[in-house]
Amino acid sequence: MKPLFTGKHTPLTPRRLTLTLSVLFLVLVASSLFALAVGSVSVPLSSVLGSCTGLFPVSDMDRLIILDIRLPRVLLAILVGAGLSVAGAVLQALLRNPLAEPYILGISSGGTMGTILAIALASGVSQFVAPAASFAGSALVMILVYAMAHRRGQLDPYTLLLSGVMVGAFFNAAVLLTVALFNQELRHAFLWLMGNLSGARYDTLLIAGPLTILGIIPAFLAARKYNLISTGDEAAYQLGVDVRKLRRRSYAIASVITGAVVSVSGVVGFVGLIIPHIARMIFGPDHRLLLPASFLLGGSFLVLADTLARTMIAPTEIPVGAVTAILGAPVFVYLLRRG
Amino acid sequence: MLVLTVDNVSFSYISGTPTLRNVSLEVKRGEFLTLVGPNGSGKSTLLKLLDRIYLPDTGSIRLDEKALSAYARPDLARRIAYVPQDRDTAFPFTVEEIVLMGRAPHASGAMFESLHDRDIARRMMELTDIAHLASHPITNLSGGERQRAFIARALAQQPLVLLLDEPTAHLDIAHQVEIFRLLRSLSIDNGLTVVSVSHDLNLASMYSDRIAMLLCGELTAIGTPPAVLTVDRIREVFRADVVVDRHPVTDAPRVTMVR
Fold first, then answer.
1. CA A300 – CA A322 distance, rounded (Å)
2. Which pLDDT score is estimated for A1?
3. What local confidence, expressed as pLDDT, does residue A3 receive?
């Protein structure tokens, strides 16, 4: 495949890292403030800032809208966008393929299966049961795919990829079968399949949040090793990297993040593929910058995409997964053709 | 002074079918040794054993009079650098970024390269004549430039021994000569020990101090190019009909296919 990023650049310095991440952080803050102000009820920016900081007077109604309805949703969008982007960047390094994304490991289909079963069998209690069932399904697929790809202590990237695709296809078929058998809750399940943040509450964040952070921190710390492994397994090994350990750990990182995210948002496509890709085009392939930049860029992107999803034909909501796919697919094709 | 000692080493990927059988050889400091032999003779495998990518089934390998197995991996990466044949360039790292990666074994957990690291990378890029390409993505370079970038990365590890697996594969004649001249000058001018796998008997003859010839996992000959590259031996090992005469300029043995 032809490289998309062709610009010359100099090696990363702590100064450039700090500057770039500061700018991206401000972008994320600006996107979030915008998302908090916009919606079926428009709230002035002073109320948004007032609710968050207590510096300005705010009406009780505005405070309720911002703190109880919109803020958890914005935080969830950041979590999902950032998590998927980091998981995507890690998998792209691990598989040495810029087209890898979190869902190719089949984890999302396990999560979907879990959720669909919970909705079909235990309708009514799904607010908490569905995310738990989803994570259980994701975990099951994680273990299955890992066992299939793990041979003689090695985690082979190609076997991993194929196992993921196969297990994913199997569970997707099982999902369709289940939906066909229990079609009374079909609409709810359908929305979830498309990726949806409308169920955002503080308590959903409480489980998925720490799990995602738990995956992201070791990924950031291993950034230099991802640079080495993206030039080849033997090359990285001879430079002192414990390749087997890094592969196992990275698989776990990507799986836990994806599982956690899928359990609270459903299947939000394209973010994990396109954000690391764009970040690499703008900032270069060095993972010390690429991983945190993908985190911030992915967060901002999904906050804005979700704002679009809930305002475009308000009061009706579009699943955010549909928005990311409709925005993401053409952008991606454009990037491919330009490269 | 001996740098590498290979003592009666055997190795098999699948038990029962040995890839290497009872190989013994010694490499002196500053020497340029080329491993030759037909496909599947075990050259690349021997090279990987020398960098402990695989462990021998029996026998032992010593580096600087200490068992290879006694080194911690980052320790080994500061003494032996290995340039594998298949490298991935899926992502557009620049030449300088690639070369700086060679400093990783010296970093001990640091997140950024030091000025000292930058300095060494710069010197190695100059040595391999790619300093002018420092900010270019590796994905945009020619095969020869890319190979030199990966050799520069290996040199940035500041090793005692440089191992290369077919460094001239897929390169045109001019680039092949260029790589071998570089390896030669590294061993003479910088005292680096070089062990390289090659399919080109004439390049091996012109540039290396000694040649080790392998056949079916066994070392059939080791010595200076005139001692190893004889008509009978090449006929036996490669099953090829050749004549061997002298190179008109360098006087090194010259191997020519008859038909």
1. 17
2. 39
3. 43
Instruction: Pick the residue of A154, A225, A231 with the most B CBs within 10 A to test the interface with B by mutation.
Output: A231
Q: For chain A, give the percent of residues with pLDDT over 70.
A: 91
pLDDT in tens, A215-247: 999 999 999 999 999 998 889 999 999 998 998
B11, B78, A236, B52: CA torsion to nearest 10: 10
In terms of DSSP bridges, do strands B58-63 and B2-11 run parallel, antiparallel, or are they unpaired? Answer: antiparallel
Residues of chain A with CATH 1.10.3470.10: 102-266
* Alpha-carbon gap, residue B198 to A290, rounded angstroms: 38
pLDDT in tens, A185-211: 666 666 667 788 887 888 888 888 998
Pick the CATH number of B2-79+161-257 from 2.30.110.10, 3.40.50.300, 3.40.630.30, 3.20.20.70: 3.40.50.300
Q: Which residues of chain B lie closer than 8 angstroms to A237, CB-CB?
A: 53, 73
- How far is residue B221's CA from residue B31's CA, in Å, rounded to a whole number? 17
Is the pLDDT at B160 greater than 70? The verdict is: yes
With CA atoms as reference, report the closest residue to B66 among B48, B54, B52, B46.
B52
Radius of gyration of chain A (CA): 20
Is B137 in contact with A234 (Cβ distance < 8 A)?
no
The answer to whether A284 faces chain B, any CB pair under 8 Å, is yes
Domain ranges of chain B: 2-79+161-257, 88-158
Cα A240 → chain centroid: 31
Average pLDDT rounded to a whole number, residues A22-46: 91
Mean pLDDT across chain B: 92
Say which amino acid occupies A234. Answer: E
* Mean pLDDT along residues A261-287: 90
pLDDT band at A124; cut points 50, 70, 90: low
CA-CA distance, A183 to A176, in Å (whole number)? 10
Contact yes or no for A294/A279 (Cβ under 8 A): yes
Is the pLDDT at A182 greater than 80, yes or no?
A: no
pLDDT by residue (tens digit) across B225-241? Answer: 999 999 999 999 998 88
How far is Cα A214 from Cα B142, in angstroms, rounded to an integer? Answer: 42
pTM of the model: 0.90
User: Closest Cα partner for A35 from A60, A70, A65?
Assistant: A70
**ipTM value for the complex:** 0.89
Tell me the pLDDT tens digit for each residue of A313-333: 877 888 898 899 888 888 777
When CB atoms are compared, the residue of A235, A280, A288 closest to B91 is A280
Interchain contact A231–B (C-beta under 8 A): yes
Domain A102-266 sits in which CATH superfamily? Answer: ABC transporter involved in vitamin B12 uptake, BtuC (1.10.3470.10)
> How many angstroms separate the CA atoms of B161 and B81, rounded?
6
In this complex, the residue of A13, A228, A238 whose CB is nearest that of residue B53 is A238
* Inter-CA distances, A296 with A119, A218, A259, A276, A286, Å: 33, 17, 20, 11, 16
List alpha helices for A55-106, DSSP H. 60-63, 71-94
Q: Is the confidence at residue A126, as pLDDT, over 60?
A: no
Q: Cβ–Cβ of B91/A230 closer than 8 Å? A: yes
Query: Are A153 and A222 a contacting pair, CB within 8 Å?
Result: no
- Closest residue in chain B to residue A234, using alpha carbons only: B84
